[in-house]
Structure formats: structure tokens, C-alpha cells
Amino acid sequence: MRYVDEFRDPSRARVVADAIHAVVTRDWHIMEICGGQTHAIVRFGIEQLIPPKVHLIHGPGCPVCVTPAGIIDAAVRIARDHRATLCTFGDMLRVPGTQGSLLDARARGADVRIVYSPMEAMDLAARCPDREVVFLAIGFETTAPANALAVFTARRRGLRNFSVIVSHFLVPPAITSILESDSVRIDGFLAAGHVCTVMGWKEYVPIAQRYRKPIVVTGFELLDILQGILLCVRQLEQGRCEVENQYSRSVRPEGNPQARRLVEEVFQVITGPWRGIGSIPHSRLGLRSAYREFDALEKFGIMDQSHEASSGPCIAGKILCGSARPPDCPAFGKACTPDHPLGAPMVSSEGACHAYYLYSRDSNPPNA
Amino acid sequence: MCLAVPGRIISINESDDPLDRTGVVDFEGVRRRVGLAWVPEARVGDYVIVHVGHAISRLDPEEAQRTLEAFRELSQALGAADSEK
A227 vs B70: CB contact, 8 Å cut-off? Predict the structure, then answer.
């Protein structure tokens, strides 16, 4: 067992696809939350394998995409005006703020660095005590433990030159918000397997029951996603609305208790904005007061970071809520490409527009 | 961002502080040191899911086998349905 090839086997995929065809009798709309799953769906051509009656709606699970422009502006200001070393994940560099991207700032001399892990940024601060090191900590629940560990360790080591800009988002409040807004028909959800690896799936049970929507915790390989769809449509056809766990090789009901404990130590739930969507109650994480000294926005006196960029022709908000698909955007593949993105979903390796640009055959080819 | 990949633990560095527990993990030939603080049950030879430098779960071989078994049963069920037609 190597946990990759077995779950990409084309002959098994055919079997699951056939099973989906056999069970579906009418139209169903299923949202996959996670941008990693959106990419897998488009890359593996899953929409071509399943019945046309099963409509996959792409969700908001791309932290790069939902990070407000004001946060990027704050990061640019800290790197440019305060001469701090700004570290973040590679995907963040090209995302446009209102005053350009971090990549633009770097081209003008700011010290902007890509790190693979938050601990690299903290280690850099430990090695360079004369330099202010700021980590732009973005992510969903999956990334929260690693970001929490960097802050927790910095405090334990007494680092005074390390701080973080927190741009952290939670999945269950976003699902509730999408269902409450009623702007797009969704019959069931594929919940994000790695978010649930950390958090478990119990908090999805009241959502499934209250809104009468099946929720299937799903992995990321070809067979995982097909099986997640099968379990979801089977519930829909049978009139059930339960939480099922397709990704049981990684997800336990309670998640990862050690990782969750650290997240709860460092972060608290706050209300805040999502780019393109607006404010969602209790949907973000912020530093607890015991860790305030590591808040970069406070340290550098940056107050306003909730403003939105004017989006021009970009329809990122609709893309993120599933009410439009990338080819619906007039700028897609023309004014907006991965090299010249107008919005974050074209930048991120989890953005729906980026996935369609790279892989999709039913949209305009990039060079047409 | 929630991209996380499976890899096999090659060696483990135990530490007095459980948060400092690390190990070397092999990702199909590429080896990296990763944090193992949140998978205290993981041993050398186990597969773990790694995200931004930290293992977030130990993959359960029995559950994986059960998932693969479900595909086999599906195949048999579809075969039986076809032969009834």
C-alpha cells in the first residue's frame, strides 16, 4: 500500500463511475468545498465520467482566494514601509491587492520570501535577531496547527522580532452562510478531507440535519472523489441527509486532538471578511490576547485591513460561492490569465479559474 | 493550500518535548524532515499525511483496505446486475 496509485486506478474508477450512473435518476447539485478537490476534479476530468445530471459546484475553499485585499495591502506596507522580511506561501505572491501584489513589492526592493513551512519563517527570525520577520499566515483548519505551532514556539523561545498576519478561515460557517444565502442550489456537499483530518467531522452533523443536506467527508485522489460523489448521490436518491466519512484512512471522528489543542491554545474564533464574499459570523481565527505581541498588524500600527479591491470585470465573488463558473467570466483566459491575474482564483493552485485555465477542455483554450 | 501528501516515515527523532518530535519522511524518493508532534502513535514504516512540514495524520492501513474492498464489492454488484439484464 502506497496510498496514491491504488486510489488512482482507472479500472476501479470506471466501476465507481458506473455505480454513479446506475443510482442517479434526477438532477443533483453537489458542492465540493475544497479548492484542492476542484483541481483534482478538473485535472482528472471527473465531470466527463459522471452522469450529466450530477452537477459539481465549486466552493470557496481556497484560502489564497478569500484573503481580503486589505490583508495583502497590509503585508505590502509592512514589507515596503517598515523594511521587514515578509515570508509567506508561494501562492500568495501574485495575488493582487489594491496597491499591487507582494511580487510587485519584491520587484521594487522589498524583502519578500517564499517559505514551505511557517517554522522556516520562525527559524529565520531566531537566526536574524536584528531583523523583523513577519509571516503572512493564511489557511483553513488544515494549516492552523502549523501556524499555531510557529507562534507558540516563538513565544516559548522569547522571540521579539517575529510576528504574524493571521488570515485564517473556517469551513463550517462558510457552508452555513452559503446555505442561508440561498443564491445557488446545493443538494449535498463533499467536505474537505484534510480540514476534517485536523478537526474531525462532528461539527458537520448539525448542519446536515438542520439543512437536510448530506455531507460526505472526501479525500483527494480520483477514486476518493468519485466515491464521495457516489455516497452523496446515494443518500440523495434515498432521501437521507447524514455525515459520511469516505476518507476514513486519514479522518477520525474527533480529528487530531493534539493538533486541535494547539490551535485552541493560540487562536480564537472571530467574525471577519472573506474576499469577494463579505463578512461571515464566527468564520475566522485570530490570535488570543495572550499572543497579541505576535500580531504584526498591531506591532506595525496597521488598523484598516478589511477593505476590498475594486474588482473590475473579475467575478471572483460569484465563482467562490458557486453561482458562476470560470468560463462565465468575460475576462477568463483573455484579460485574466495566471501570468496576469485580475483575481485570486486565477492565481492560486487551488483557485477554480486556475484549474479551468490549466486543464479544462470545455472552456476557451488559453491560446485561442 | 490544504494540499497534503502521503509519505513513509524512514526515521524518528524523539525529543523530551513532544512538540519537538520530528522524523525523515520519504515521498516517493524525495526525503524531508517533518514535524511528528501530532502523530505520537506513528512509527518507522508508517505512512503519514504531511501538510506544510507537519504530519497531520497517520494513515490507517485497515481503513484504506476497507475502502479498496468497497470498490471490489461495487464491481461484483454491478457485474451481478449486468448478468440479470
Answer: yes
Give the domain range for residue B30.
Answer: 5-83
Query: What ipTM goes with this model?
Result: 0.94
Domain A2-62+183-245: CATH superfamily, name plus number? HypD, alpha/beta domain 1 (3.40.50.11750)
B19 vs A contacts (CB less than 8 Å): 149, 152-153, 262
Which residues in chain B have Cβ-Cβ distances shorter than 8 Å to A35?
1-2
Would you call A233 an interface residue with chain B, using a CB distance cutoff of 8 Å? no
Cell digits for A107? 520587484
Alpha helices in A111-166 (DSSP H): 118-127, 144-157
How many domains are contained in chain B? Answer: 1
The x, y and z cell numbers of residue A55, run together, are: 452537477
Is the confidence at residue A313, as pLDDT, over 90?
A: no
Judged by CB atoms closer than 8 Å, whether chains meet at A6 and B68 is answered as yes
A224-238: b (≥16 Cβ within 10 Å) or e: bbbbbbbbbbbbbee
Look at residue B77 in the predicted model and tell me its pLDDT: 87
Helix (H, G, I), strand (E, B) or coil at B78: helix
Class in CATH terms, A64-170+255-299:
alpha beta
Query: Tell me, what CATH number does B62's domain have?
Result: 2.30.30.140
How deeply is A26 buried, as exposed, middle or buried, from its count of CB atoms within 10 A (0-12, 13-18, 19+)?
Answer: exposed
